[in-house]
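Next comes this protein:
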Amino acid sequence: MPNQYSSSPAQMPQAALRDDQRAIAEAIARSWRRCMVKGVDEQAPAEDQIITAEALAHRLEKNRLLLTHADPEMITLSEQIAHTRSLVILTDSDGVILRTMGEGVDANEVRASLLPGASWSEEHRGTNAIGTALVERLPISVQGAEHFMAYHRSLSCSAVPIFAANNHLVATLDVSNDLNAPQQHTLALVKMAAQMVENRLFHATAEGEIGVHFHARPEFIGTLWEGVALFDAQGQLQAINRSGQFQFGLPLDQDLLSSRRPSFEAIFDESWLAFKQRAGSTAVLSPLRLRNGARLFAKASAKHAPSPGRTPVLDQPRESAASLAMLDSGDPQLSLAIKQVKQVLDRDIPILILGETGAGKELFSRAIHDASARKQQPFVAVNCAALPEGLIEAELFGYEEGAYTGAKRKGNIGKIQQADGGTLFLDEIGDMPLTLQARLLRVLQDRSVTPLGSSKSIPVNFMLLSATNQALKEKVAAGEFRSDLYYRINGLTVQLPALRQRQDLARLIQMILQIEQAPQVTLSASVMAIFTRHPWPGNIRQLHNVLRTAVALADGGEIGREHLTQDFIDEWDGPAHAPATALPSANESLKSQSEAAIRQAMRQHSGNISAVARQLGLSRNTLYRRLKDLELN
């Protein structure tokens, strides 16, 4: 059995990278041979490879848990490769596209083939990244002429298979773009995103009473690359992630637990009872040895199955969690906001968080929740601007069976009811339609919610946090926001500073690197100079995305200018870069700051709505409304 897994994928040496490239080339050759043996039609029409809308709806319902846990990573990956004409694609285990995100590709002959419902199995499409990754169970990059079918040879595609607990293949994550605009490091970014999805799925679905987190190098415990094995109270193995299988030297091509479940003693050279006694504190790292003598480091954790009445999305791990103490990194304005929040915490006082888009309002709200007495209960976030106006009512209040055409057979619990006992966070509340503001006000007054199609009121009890990047007082004056709702949500108002106004950039960067589980990574002096002078129109969200991508591209070493994406460099170096004096000052209104950020982003991206929306973290609908207000559309 191998006794080491000493490098994360983000730190692979060049020899290992060459091995990866050789493995990919061999996998593509095997795929071509399979296609020729099976007689795959190179000229098969694209319409023969798209399932019906009814069949797609069935697959989407079947894969609800996968979609729930993949969506956040798809959004992040899409932001990392924004402005590259790329498409992020999630498929099921058959290679049928379930969801896409991004601007898409230019090639007309394949654009329709990249929509949800299209099948990319090898049987239908020949050699391609998605289908071949599923067959080979390996990350695959297929470029141009490596595709079996001629009309796919305008594409560059990178796909990574996604596995649930116990090596069960459930999906692929893919990035596809035009061959004439290849992107460096795409496969590495997709690998990282796929690993995040796997971790989410594992923690959401795997069952066991005690978890053992382990790695040959102690600094990798708690990172994406740690091994995790779940045992029952008697020490029988219940589930193990793929990193754990790799470190144990176990095969990655089968379900290890389909028959006999090995015991803790069969894997480790120590008794189960002794380990539990020695690792009673979950904060303590303990040395462990495999049966062959290989040394590991391990940490125990309690693993609880999701409550029967709760949706899986509420129990997913939060890799980006940060405490109020962690957020208090030295900026005076932010320190004041944190002090004020602590003074009203657990006093049933609603908190309204103001700040530009990307200033960290949701992270701040999560930290408030985690500092409260409700921290063990659900944190439910609703982006009022991202949901279509026709769906936000059903999402917030829930609905009974048959409440409207297309409703699920058994109805649906709304976000407000899901937050019962915990925290409800209404992000971008300034974009909530007036009709819904009246219903929300009734919920806050009566502390009960009535689902659509029902006459029964359900009592609810939650802490209310709201956030906006708009000047709500001005919206109240203009009749666009109810004054009674404004005063109901505004028990305490706190203002988060824009990144360009903050005085704690260095400590903020270190905090983000810690969240990304890369505290050892450093920045070169030239990169730090760029960061210090950058206007950061996307604020902390933009900084986080820039750092996350740079960490992956730097292979765990120092981040240099070469590890910054070209669109970020262009944003800093290009003609659209505004001098510091042209930026809004701290005493300008929130509305003026928002308008300045939108105008600057529109100039920078030559009016590309998708690019501007991604940079500013707005939905396209919200951006169109803002542009109309500014008379820029």
User: Anything to note?
Assistant: The CA atoms of residues 570 and 578 lie 12 Å apart. The chain is about 40% helix and 15% strand.
